[in-house]
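Section 5.1 Outputs to date
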Amino acid sequence: MAAMSFLSVIERYHEHESVIHELLDSILLGLSDATLFQNGLSDKVFSELAKSYPFVQLLYLLDQDGVQISDDILVLNQKVNREKYGLNTDRSHRPYFTGLIHQQDKRYITSPYLSNTGAGLCISASRRLINSVGDTQIVVIDINLTQLIEFM
């Protein structure tokens, strides 16, 4: 298949936006247990996610102030790796955090944007969760938009 232009990816995204949001809601709901990010045994869950949804690139957990409190869960070629690169990074200025904080919904999905990793167009989705001690945490997933469109 020929490479899709950014314009055609964005156009297809808007054509299928409601279905894409339903799919991301479903993925976020499956990740709504904050302990998944603290337990290395949960890597099997992330591996299954990577196989089922090859467009997922990155997952992590934020505290209620927007500071990353988990390792980066990186997905590349359906393989999962944990990296400490983003741990303790302040992400409170990012749209997936600010958008979620400023609205009353449990989840927020960004508009398409160029990834700072150089991976092309992506979208991020975030969801509020309450951990076992009652603290608010936020799960974030980064999606390769071109791969998502091709997946559909």
